[in-house]
Specification:
alpha/beta; 5-stranded parallel β-sheet; elongated
């Protein structure tokens, strides 16, 4: 298996250094470059064409993360790059979870959206999933994306010049989950906390149940929703209306 080439554009030195060091320890990832602002970032990305570009939204200067994503996506779609075997992907990594930022990032061409407080294992998962062509969405902002899926004509505040993005509606199988695979009341409480970003330990404390019991509920939820991980379960539960 070829390593996934990754470049990081992040202005905070400690954050950038920490992510770089952690990624360099991953056997499946090849860290190929870093930049501290948008101007440096576009030069780096156009030169290296990484499999996955990790971009912070709040970059200093005239080119923020949204504009950088837009420019890079336009570059990779240019005729000069038409012979690329795999189109480079963009994974937004940020602390911003407001609706405007989320929708603007996807409108600019971002493939995935990940919060900076995510566990490193989840960041690696997001990179791998993004590289494979999937859209990895942090559970904490999934509600925003799914709300747009249910209201595709609602106007969003997106910076001028950023193209619109279409998000398809729910799949029939997702809508039928509520009747095909009903969750118990306790499982509904657990999945709601998962959607809110709670860890297993935090769920146990919130519901006054043991960690082992939490893991059992999570396993049952994954089985009923036919999901492999908590993130996909959270997104599917939201799509199916299992969580308000």
């Amino acid at each position: 298996m070829n390593k996934i080439s990754v470049a990081l554009i992040e202005d905070h030195h400690l954050t950038r250094s920490g992510i770089k060091a952690a990624l360099n320890d991953c056997d499946d990832i090849a860290f190929i470059g870093e930049a501290a602002n948008g101007m440096q970032g576009i030069t780096l990305l156009e030169k290296t064409l990484p499999d996955v570009a990790i971009i912070d939204i709040g970059l200093p200067g005239l080119i923020d993360g949204i504009e950088l994503t837009k420019r890079f996506k336009e570059f990779v779609k240019a005729p000069i790059n038409s012979n690329l075997d795999n189109q480079p992907k963009v994974l937004v990594l940020t602390m911003q979870d407001n609706e405007d930022s989320v929708l603007a990032a996807f409108a600019a061409g971002a493939n995935s959206y990940c919060m900076k407080d995510v566990m490193f294992e989840k960041l690696v998962e997001a990179i791998v999933e993004t590289h494979s062509g999937a859209n990895w969405i942090d559970p904490s902002i999934a509600r925003i994306v799914l709300a747009r899926m249910n209201n595709p004509f609602q106007e969003a505040t997106i910076p001028a010049g950023v193209p619109s993005v279409s998000i398809h509606g729910l799949k029939p199988e997702d809508s039928e989950l509520l009747t095909v695979n009903p969750l118990t009341q306790r499982e509904r409480e657990v999945i709601e906390l998962i959607v809110e970003g709670y860890s297993n330990e935090e769920i146990g404390e919130e519901l006054y149940i043991s960690l082992g019991t939490v893991k059992t509920h999570v396993r049952n939820i994954l089985n009923k929703l036919s999901c492999d991980d908590r993130t996909s379960a959270a997104v599917r539960a939201l799509r199916a209306g299992l969580v308000n």
